[in-house]
Amino acid sequence: MRIVVTGGAGFIGSHTVDALVAAGADEIFVLDDLSSGKRNQVNTRAAFFQVDLRDAAAVKAVVEKTRPEAIIHCAAQMDVRRSVADPAFDAQVNVVGFLNLIEAARQQGLRRVILSSTGGAIYGEQDEFPCTEDHPLRPVSPYGVAKLATEAYLFFYKVQYGIDYVALRYGNVYGPRQDPHGEAGVVAIFCGRILGGKPVTIFGDGEQTRDYVFVSDVARANIAALNSTASGVALNIGTGIETNVNELYSTLAAIADFPAAAEYAGERPGEQRRSVISPARAASTIAWRPEKALGEGLEDTFKYFKDRRGRSN
Ligand code: NAD
To answer: Confidence band (pLDDT; 50, 70, 90) for 214?
Structure first.
C-alpha cells in the first residue's frame, strides 16, 4: 500500500513512520516542510519530500508522483497559543493545507485517511471525567476549531467520494523526540530544565490535569486505525488516567534524582483545567489499548534526553 505520512519528520509522525517500517510497509512517503520536524528523524526506508502543505501546486505535484492509497495526516501547526495569536495562520496550515492535500489525493485514488486530531482542545472544558467521544465539542482555541473542522471535512469526503477515515483524538502525547513546544511539551520542557540543573516553573497551582499517553502507543494507534475497516469515526487515544502537573513533576524529579522544588508562576490565561479521555471506543473499534505506564514512559523519555545531551556535549 502506498502511504503518505504528513509531518513524518516531526515527533509523532516520525514514530509512526518507524512503526510502519517495523510492520513491513515498503512504500512510505513523508511530506514535511521541516518547520518543526527534523530531516534526521525521517526513517531512511521512507522517501522524503520537503513541501509546505499551504503550497497547493507543490502538494499536487508530490501527490501526483506518490499516488497515495492512504494518508496518515500528522502535519500541523500544533501550538495552541500561536493559534490564538494568529488564527489565520493556524487555519492556513491546519485547514487549507489539509484541503490542498486531500483535494489532490482524492484525484489520485485515495482510499483512507487517519487524522491526528486532539482529545484535549476539541472538547474544551469537560463535563465528564474521563469523557467519551460523545462529549460536546466546545473548542476554545482556533487550533481546536481547526481540528473539529478537519474532522467535519473528512465526513464530507466520505459521503461525497467514499474516502474512509478515522480521526484519532490524542491525549497529551509525550516521549522521545518531542520538541519543548505546543500542546504537550511539558515533559520535554521539564526534562530539559532538570538536565540543565535548573528548577522547573509550574504555571498556576499545578493541580491542572492531563491524560499523558506515550508516543509509541500513539504510533501503534495510527497503524491499528490504518489496518482496520473502521470508518467515519473519532476515537480517543488516551489512557483514561488523569495526572496533575505536580504529580508529573514529582515523578520525573524522582526518576532524575533531582532535589530542587518546582517554582510557581501565575496561571496561564485560558488554560484548560482538567482533561482526561476514555479509550474504551478505541479498544472495541480498533483493538487498541495503551500499554506504557506513565512512570515507565517518563523513565524512557528522561533517558532519551539525557543520552542526547550527553552526545551533544
Ligand atoms: P510536531 O510539531 O513534532 O509535528 C508536526 C509536523 O508537521 C512537523 O514535522 C512540522 O515540520 C510539520 N509541519 C508543520 N507545518 C507544516 C506545513 N505547513 N507543511 C508541511 N509540514 C508541516 O508535533 P507532533 O506533536 O508530532 O504533532 C503531530 C500531530 O498530532 C499534529 O497534527 C498535532 O496537532 C497532533 N496532536 C499532538 C498532540 C501532542 O500532545 N503532541 C496532541 C494532540 C494532537
So the answer is: very high
pLDDT of 111-142, one tens digit each?
999 999 999 999 999 999 999 999 999 999 99
Q: CB neighbours of 287 closer than 8 A, spacing ≥ 6?
A: 224, 228
Ligand 1 touching residue 239 (CB < 6 A) = no
Atom of ligand 1 nearest to the CA of 53: 19
Which CATH architecture describes the domain 2-173+214-237? 3-Layer(aba) Sandwich (3.40)
Neighbours of 243 (CB within 10 A): 16
Q: Residue 79 C-alpha to ligand 1 middle, in angstroms?
A: 9
CA of 259 relative to ligand 1 center, distance in Å: 33
Identify which of 74, 210, 222, 248 to mutate to test ligand 1's pocket (most ligand atoms within 8 A of the CB): 74
Whole-angstrom Cα distance, residue 194 to residue 172?
Answer: 20
Q: How far is the CA of 73 from the centre of ligand 1 (A)?
A: 9
Structural fold of domain 174-210+241-275+292-312: UDP-galactose 4-epimerase; domain 1 (3.90.25)
Q: Where are the domains of the chain?
A: 2-173+214-237, 174-210+241-275+292-312
Closest atom, ligand 1, to C-alpha of 93: 18
d(CA 90, CA 258): 37
Q: Is 123 a catalytic residue?
A: no
Residue-wise pLDDT tens digits, 22-57: 999 999 999 999 999 999 999 999 999 999 999 999
Name residues whose C-beta falls within 8 Å of residue 310's C-beta, 6 or more positions apart in sequence: none
Rounded Cα distance between 53 and 102, Å, is: 10
Residue 76 CA to ligand 1 centre (angstroms)? 4
* Ligand 1 contact via 181 beta carbon (within 6 Å): no
